[in-house]
Amino acid sequence: MLLVDAKNPSLQNIKAAVEDIISLDNQAISTLVITDKLRHDILDILVTYSNKIPHPASVEGTNSNTLIRWQILAHVAGIDLTIAKWFESHLDALSILHEVGYDKNTDGLWAVWASEGHPDPIYYQQGNVSGTKGWCSGANVVDYALMTYKDKNGYSQLLIIDMQENGIEIDNDEWQAVGMQATDTGTIQFDQVPATNVGAANAYLERVGFWHGAAGVAACWYGATACLATYLITAYQHKPHDYKAMYLGQISTALAVTQQYFHHVADLIDSQPLHSHELAIRQLRSNVEQVARLVIETVGQALGATPFCRNAHFARLSADLAVFIRQSHGAFDLQKIGELTSDLTEGQENIWQL
């Protein structure tokens, strides 16, 4: 996981609270068999810490608030990626509302649903929303949704929806995933559901926090990846072998470099909070995806089938991570990195020179 800063008391408190819940269930994280009840108990505890977790780029004293946030997300991801998916979306919703100047009550569990392209698109008229939204994680779980839609001028707008309102139908039948199966991801149809428009047109996409939030997703990928890697450390310490050491050296190098890049990007965001840092964050996400795939493959080669078949925590984390990193956009992300890099190099001899 991300190197833990001693100046992160929220993380220490969250760790202790979650470990208490797991121990009451007579379990340990390294062999955790998670039930729906346990998952929701952990999520409920995490939500109580929401107002203690800083928004990205919110500078306080000498602490890196962005890193504090990522360390918490990485730790949660190492426990369970479904919980991390829900909690990251919840925190992202609160940060978006903060950024667009929404100052009303934000109690409850929130989610951000921003997928576009459904053939029955969302439309908003006279205070009510109708249409269909796909890829809604936590559809039956969340209290409030922060949802995007395109207005008649093609601008992206944000709506707040109370998920207890009438006129909401949730269909989970399309969600056939094995990894991330428990995320309660559904397609939701809205029929004249009351909703509140927040923020200016295109605020969701154009605010600098869009990319700061995207890095938070990468922190979840990294936390799960680092947790999988610790299984190889334990196996090598229990039964040393040259090939295990070689595989461990390979992933240790990759993880250490990525860990330091998280620290670097967090410092960038905190020191220049009005910049999106899109290039650095796209590069970070791309790197974490590559390292995640390396760790899944390499730890599997080193340990064989046993943890995939006999350790519920390892098996679930491996399956979930393989799906979660597909939230990256692969070749499209690399294309954008290339374009942004080209723009950056104008008038400079070599941007990579030490």
Give a description of the structure.
This is Acyl-CoA dehydrogenase. InterPro entries: Acyl-CoA_Oxase/DH_mid-dom_sf (IPR046373), AcylCoA_DH/oxidase_NM_dom_sf (IPR009100). It comes from Psychrobacter frigidicola. GO terms for molecular function: oxidoreductase activity, acting on the CH-CH group of donors. The protein is of the alpha+beta class and 354 residues long. It folds into 2 domains: 1-100 and 207-344, no CATH class; 110-202, Butyryl-CoA Dehydrogenase, subunit A, domain 2, CATH 2.40.110. 53% of the residues lie in helices and 13% in strands. The strands form 2 sheets. The protein has a 4-stranded mixed β-sheet with strand order 1-4-5-8. Strands 2-3-7-6 form a 4-stranded antiparallel β-sheet, with no helix packed on it. A hairpin with a 2-residue loop joins strand 2 and strand 3. Helix 7 runs antiparallel to helix 8.
Helices and strands, with pairings:
Elements: H1 9-24, H2 36-48, H3 65-79, H4 81-99, E1 110-113, E2 123-125, E3 128-136, E4 144-150, E5 156-162, E6 168-171, E7 186-194, E8 196-198, H5 203-206, H6 209-238, H7 242-271, H8 278-303, H9 306-310, H10 312-324, H11 330-345
Parallel strand pairs: 1-4
Antiparallel strand pairs: 2-3, 3-7, 4-5, 5-8, 6-7
Helix pairs in contact: 1-2, 1-3, 2-4, 3-4, 3-6, 4-6, 6-7, 6-8, 6-10, 7-8, 8-11
InterPro entries: Acyl-CoA_Oxase/DH_mid-dom_sf (IPR046373), AcylCoA_DH/oxidase_NM_dom_sf (IPR009100)
Organism: Psychrobacter frigidicola
Protein name: Acyl-CoA dehydrogenase
